[in-house]
């Protein structure tokens, strides 16, 4: 059979049009570098949207995946397997959690978490305690339940009616949350840093206040750490810097270093409500994903590596401030660790795609977080030299866009 030639145009022919991928088609990656079909090299500041935490084709992950692929791929949850048990044990050693549920993605992890908090309230109080509160501009996934809990109407539009009993309030506004909570509240769901909402960190005092309100109302606190987890902020999970423990935590993206896996972490007390037969996942906890994830976890939980992520944050900010001093495109540079957002000034609002296209022409892969924020989420092991080289490319891209001027 003759090998098929595929291009970006093939996407439009055969794929559902819910994405608009870039014109280039990557075919190979190594560390923080990617090559397209034409052999052009790019520096990757996207990390697969904070997924490829150890870069592309990391030798240690490749080795583990190859070894496991020669043993077991899949069993189903009628049985368990060693990689899943080892990974669950390690996650409970490193975090507040006593119990783990494995799935395939962040959306599935959040789906499990939202079902758990309602089931826990149902078991311990009754059906009237079912209301979930989350925050405007939050993002929690693409299932019907998770887009409903997420605080961005554009992701719900056209899919109504959506699940009821969900309220959205302003992020970092404790008074607004206090006014919304009642004895009917079963859980508050939040991101320690709103990712898709614009790389907006939660104020530490706000987080502590959320925990106190949850305790007062006998409500569970859910931290969505899909994007902030597994070293992204320079802490293994972002909650560890805040001095507040959740009752439930969701994690995915970087957990598998590029191999699809997600997990919901919780306490013994909460876990009892997901008893036999209440929830499941055919592929969740598969040996391949769990073996790779264990290597990721053991590598990134190293104290020196986490400290290095925090140090590299300073280098990114230094370089971005230098570019901004010359071109004045950002109102603010924010974020933590290697999750960084440059909030564009009003005259550049809605024009993030122009900066992405110009960066791509210079051999740099970037992201946006909403239309007003340029986002960078590179591999955690990106080198200082690669950061500086990428910033040189970014500076040339910014200069080009600024020369053209804002769109009317």
UniProtKB/TrEMBL annotation:
> Which Enzyme Commission number(s) are listed?
2.6.1.11
Q: What else is known?
A: May also have succinyldiaminopimelate aminotransferase activity, thus carrying out the corresponding step in lysine biosynthesis.
Question: Which gene is annotated as encoding this protein in its UniProt record?
Answer: argD
Q: What domain of life does the native source organism fall in? A: Bacteria
Give the family from UniProt.
Answer: Belongs to the class-III pyridoxal-phosphate-dependent aminotransferase family. ArgD subfamily.
Against InterPro entries, the record matches this protein to:
Ac/SucOrn_transaminase_bac, AcOrn/SuccOrn_fam, Aminotrans_3, Aminotrans_3_PPA_site, Class-III_PLP-dep_AT, PyrdxlP-dep_Trfase, PyrdxlP-dep_Trfase_major, PyrdxlP-dep_Trfase_small
Keyword hit for Nucleotidyltransferase: no
Quickly give the catalysed reaction. Answer: N(2)-acetyl-L-ornithine + 2-oxoglutarate = N-acetyl-L-glutamate 5-semialdehyde + L-glutamate
Q: Which organism is it from?
A: Kistimonas scapharcae
**SUPFAM superfamilies given for it?**
PLP-dependent transferases
Keywords in alphabetical order: Amino-acid biosynthesis, Aminotransferase, Arginine biosynthesis, Cytoplasm, Pyridoxal phosphate, Transferase
Q: What is this protein called?
A: Acetylornithine aminotransferase
Residues annotated to bind pyridoxal 5'-phosphate: 139, 224-227, 282
N6-(pyridoxal phosphate)lysine: residues carrying this PTM? 253
Family annotation (HAMAP family): ArgD_aminotrans_3
Chief localisation class = cytoplasm
Q: How is the cofactor bound?
A: Binds 1 pyridoxal phosphate per subunit.
Pathway, per Swiss-Prot/TrEMBL?
Answer: Amino-acid biosynthesis; L-arginine biosynthesis; N(2)-acetyl-L-ornithine from L-glutamate: step 4/4
Q: What residue ranges carry the coiled-coil annotation? A: none
Required cofactor names = pyridoxal 5'-phosphate
